[in-house]
Amino acid sequence: MKDRVTSGAHWAPALLAIVFVLAADPGFAQAEEPTGASPDASADAPPDGGPIAPEVAPSLAPAAAAPAPEPTAAPAPASSPASAAPAPAATPPAELTGAAWFARPRLAMTAGQGSRTFKLRFFGFLAADFMVDTTRSYDDSMGTLLVARTDTYENHRGRAQFSMKSTRLGFGFESPSVGPFSPSAVIESDFAGSQATPPGTVPAVVGQALPERSSEAVYFASPIFHIRHAYMKLSSPYVDFLMGLTYDVFGWQSYFDPAGTRNQVYSRNTQLRLSRRFGADGPVTFEVAAAAVRPVQRDSGVPDASAGLRVSFNGWQGIRTPGNERVVAMPLTLAVSGIARQFKLRAFSTPPFQTSNSVMGWGISVDAFLPIIPASNFVDRGNRLALMGSFVTGAGIGDLLSVTGGAKFPILYRDAWINPPLHYEANADNGLVSFDEQGVLHAIKWTAFRVGLQYYLPTTGRWIFSANYTQAHSPNLAMLFPDGGAETGDEQYHVADTFRYADAKLTFDVTPVVRLGVTAQYTQTVYLDEDKPHNIRIVGKTLYLF
C-alpha cells in the first residue's frame, strides 16, 4: 500500500471550501460600484498575463456591435484603427447592475493632449499558490518533469509548497500615431526565473542531472524576476509589425491556451512577425500571420518559421477566462498554424567534429473555440458555457509542448575498460532529436490533443467552473530507445512516451479584484517499460488583480 499524503490532500480543499462559503455571504462579498470610468474588467490585463488587448471599452449592447478584444495584440493607441470607435459614455453607478458588477476602471497614466497623447497602463496581479502533491515529483512548477516511478521512494511520499512566484507586473505603452503607423509596446515580468533548485529535488528518472541547489527559503522567498513578454508593435491599416518576445504564432497563443496546461502548445520566443486582419467589422474576420522565430538550435544557422490562419465568426460570441485572471469576450474561432525548424547536430562521434547531421522539425496545430451558450459581452457571465479544443502533431517540437519524455542522447561507446563510458557532446537541447542504434539522427515525434470547457454559473457568473483533459504520445521514442533508456549509459535511466493530464477548477470572485480558486490536477507518466505512476495535486490560489 502506498503511503500517500492523503491528509494534506483532504484539508487543503476543505479550508478553501470554508473560505468560499464565507465569501458567498453578501456582506462579505460586497464591493463598491465603479464610478467615473467606463466599465472594463478585461482590458487591464492580458490573457494569462500575456500581451495587452487593444483599448476598446466594452459595450453592454449585443456583441455584434463591438468586436471582441484581441488577446495577443499589443495595446493600440487611441488614434489607431483598432480603437477608432468612440467609447460609450460612463455609466452612472445606479445603472451598473447584474453582470456589470465585475466592471472596474483601468490603471493608467496619460501625458500630452490630443494627437500627442502618450499613455502608460499598469496590469498584473498578486498571486499566492498553496500546493499539496501525493508524490515528490514536482517543484512548484511541473515543467517537463516526469512523475516519479512506482519503484522509487519519491513516489510514495508527498510534498507541500507555498509560493508567490506567479505574481506578475506589466506595463503597456501607447504612443501617438505617425503617418499610417501607430506604435505601442508591452513589457511584463514575473518571479519564475531560472534559479537553483531547493533541497529534496530529485530527478524524475535515475541518472538525470540536476542544477545547482539552493535553500528552500531562497527558492521561495527570493525568486528571480524575469521577462515574460517584451515587444513593440507598429500597427497600420495594411499590415502590423511585431518585434520582440511574446507568444508564438504556432498554436495561435494565447487565444486558446488555458494558462499553459500540460501536453499542449505553450511557448514564448523572440520573433519578427507580420500579420493582417481582413473584415474586422464584418460578420467573418480572417487573420493571417507569419513570423521568423528564435531558432530552437542556434547552430542550425536559420530561424524557426511559423505561420497561421485564424477565422472568427463575429455574430456568435462567447466568454472565457484564459489563465487565472480576466474574463474576455471572443467569437467562435477556428485556427490552423504550422512551424518548421532545422537541426544540425555534430556527427555522432568523438571530437574534433568535422561533419554534421541534419534533420527537419515540423508541427501542425488545429485549434477551436466554440461558445455553446453564447454571451453578449465579457460581463454577460451568468449561465455561459464554452468549449475549447486543440490537436497538435509534429516532430522535434517537444519544447513547444513541454514534453520531452526524459529523452537524452545515447552514449557513444561503452566498454568494460572504459568507465565512465564515452558520452556524445551534443550542440542541441535534450528531448528534441536523438540518434538510433545505427547513429542516424531522428526528430522525436509527438501527437497531442486537448479538450476543455468553462462554465459560468447562474446568475451572476461569480462562480466559474473549468475542466481540461490533455494527452501527448510519441510514436517513435520506443524505436529510438529499445532498451527503455539504458542507451544513455545508465541502466536505471528510464524514458517515457505517453503523458496524461486532467484538471477541474472552481473559482469565486469575492470582489471585482479578488479571486479565490481551488484546482485538482491529475498527471500520469507512462514509461517505456509500462510503469504508469501518477500524481494528484491540489492547488489553492488567491489573486488580487490590478
Explain this structure.
It is built from five helices and 22 strands. A hairpin with a 4-residue loop joins strand 6 (226-235) and strand 7 (240-247). It has one domain (6-545): Porin, CATH 2.40.160.10. The strands form three sheets. The protein has a 16-stranded antiparallel barrel with strand order 2-4-5-6-7-8-9-10-11-12-13-18-19-20-21-22. A two-stranded antiparallel ribbon has the order 14-15. By secondary structure, it is mainly β. The protein is globular, with a radius of gyration of 24 Å.
List the helices and strands and how they pair.
Blueprint: H1 6-24, H2 26-29, E1 107-111, E2 118-133, E3 159-163, E4 168-174, E5 182-190, H3 216-221, E6 226-235, E7 240-247, E8 268-278, E9 284-293, E10 304-320, E11 328-346, E12 356-373, E13 384-395, H4 398-401, E14 411-415, E15 418-423, E16 433-435, E17 441-443, E18 445-456, E19 463-473, H5 477-480, E20 496-511, E21 514-527, E22 534-545
Antiparallel strand pairs: 1-2, 2-3, 2-4, 2-22, 4-5, 5-6, 6-7, 7-8, 8-9, 9-10, 10-11, 11-12, 12-13, 13-18, 14-15, 16-17, 18-19, 19-20, 20-21, 21-22
